[in-house]
Amino acid sequence: xxxxxxxxxxxxxxxxxxxxxxxxxxxxxxxxxxxxxxxxxxxxxxxxxxxxxxxxxxxxxxxxxxxxxxxxxxxxxxxxxxxxxxxxxxxxxxxxxxxxxxxxxxxxxxxxxxxxxxxxxxxxxxxxxxxxxxxxxxxxxxxxxxxxxxxxxxxxxxxxxxxxxxxxxxxxxxxxxxxxxxxxxxxxxxxxxxxxxxxxxxxxxxxxxxxxxxxxxxxxxxxxxxxxxxxxxxxxxxxxxxxxxxxxxxxxxxxxxxxxxxxxxxxxxxxxxxxxxxxxxxxxxxxxxxxxxxxxxxxxxxxxxxxxxxxxxxxxxxxxxxxxxxxxxxxxxxxxxxxxxxxxxxxxxxxxxxxxxxxxxxxxxxxxxxxxxxxxxxxxxxxxxxxxxxxxxxxxxxxxxxxxxxxxxxxxxxxxxxxxxxxxxxxxxxxxxxxxxxxxxxxxxxxxxxxxxxxxxxxxxxxxxxxxxxxxxxxxxxxxxxxxxxxxxxxxxxxxxxxxxxxxxxxxxxxxxxxxxxxxxxxxxxxxxxxxxxxxxxxxxxxxxxxxxxxxxxxxxxxxx
Amino acid sequence: xxxxxxxxxxxxxxxxxxxxxxxxxxxxxxxxxxxxxxxxxxxxxxxxxxxxxxxxxxxxxxxxxxxxxxxxxxxxxxxxxxxxxxxxxxxxxxxxxxxxxxxxxxxxxxxxxxxxxxxxxxxxxxxxx
Lengths: 561, 129
Description:
The complex is a heterodimer of chains A (about 550) and B (about 130).
Chain A: H1 2-20, H2 41-52, H3 57-61, H4 87-126, H5 133-160, E1 178-183, E2 186-192, H6 205-228, H7 235-258, H8 266-270, H9 282-300, H10 321-338, H11 354-380, H12 385-400, H13 408-431, H14 441-459, E3 469-470, E4 473-474, H15 485-516, H16 523-528, H17 531-535, H18 550-553
Antiparallel strand pairs in A: 1-2, 3-4
Helix pairs in contact in A: 4-5, 4-6, 4-10, 5-6, 5-7, 6-7, 6-9, 7-9, 7-15, 9-14, 9-15, 10-12, 11-12, 11-13, 12-13, 12-14, 13-14, 14-15
Chain B: H1 5-26, H2 31-54, H3 68-91, H4 95-122
Helix pairs in contact in B: 1-2, 3-4
């Protein structure tokens, strides 16, 4: 009895040690596990006794339909066959199991996020005219390669090169270089320095997992721009822009929020809540993509025929409703990798909250759809297809940042507001700003990304516990409605950084590319459709196309060579 | 002109230059790294000037010239709003004061982004002609 009590006591200590060894979500660095206590010889003896009682090979040869024999003590690797199974062996295997579970979880979620590229391709192309289908699909296809290459070369190092300390993924200790600066006596992280080409000491199992996961997030941000600039964007300029965005724009903000940079340090350095909190990337991914899309859309201008001389706008209808709605479902499916996967683990450190995160994601998508449909139906008379689709996506975008910190009621409210907001924002951008965004990407990702960041500072309920701290500050992320106004300030600093840095940087970068390359195809190419001139092939070569009205086919006088 | 072999070769050159430059940054502590970085940047610059030569072949686009000064002003305002927010966090200690300064910074940025810049681009917009 005494032995059992001591054994239980040891296991409790071991479990507690592992649990406290702490969370890190790439987004919240925390210290790795402390070494376990020295094993007791009596426990070793008990383990060896248990190992002697395992089912024989003959027993197992009979088959195990109930699954009660397969997997047991004999499957724990023994370091020294002379001493047999020891507590050290069990503890080592327990630690590796935790990391293995987290690796598997993170990788599978990353694969889901990668599949979202297909959803984006369908949505964006479906909302464009048939004469530009191939070009739009190709941008969505090639953005994956452009972004991946740039991220492997330098982007990953800038973003995550100083993100060591993630206990979920084994520590990630090779990523131990953050370039910092000191302002007003405080040290602030600016960019990472380790991990270029994934070579040298960053050729590491944990680094590979975080690279894959963060890479697919980055590519999601890049593909947002292709939708907003569709039907008039020169393929060459799109390619160069995508490389530069994957190399610099996205990784810089990613570092500040998730890689130990200055936004993550707002809590430790200035006492602003738990620092900027963006669980899965409403700001890092969607606002960065949406604001870059806004910058490029300003430069590239509206499509021919979008606006009349009096400034009123014409609706340019997409060619494939089924592609749009199927694409939306693929995106909603992929979002279950996006948000729950951002725990970077399923084992230890509060990661059992993955179920709550997944439900929050579902609910916000649902209420976002309701918000958009009811708004359009009540005000315009029809439950508009494209706005319904955008309502779903807006709800998902908005819940991305708060998904790990809010309760289901909060997520439903956040999604509902997002669904209405996307309709209002689309109308404002199109009719007031006169910016032509064929798929509504600026509103879905930019506007609602910012709303998602803000909503963390309002709705975070203080019940999450990812290893006891977030961004190095003890406690749970708690918003204004639950008593912490300083978290709202941290979120506003993040929003200001998105508007002031990300937008401006993207604008200046793309303005330079406008001077050197030019963003826009010729007017003749635009009227003819980009498929043949830019891609050399129609998206649907055997279809007979309906003739467009004159306003869309007439080349403006000022654009005639 | 649309997509062409010249563009394809130019983009290939750009990627080669960018890769070499990144290799230089990765090995920047060694003399070899600095050389790689310099070579890479020269190749990238060469590709950009190649693009510049190809640009007139594209043909006229449905864009109208707009005031560079207004664009610069819009970008400047967007950036200065961020600076107001960041420095506001250091000069004020209270949460309320910081909240107000953050909101002021955001308002200044938004003014540059959604008022000054669209006005600059739409002033001579081609659809008005």
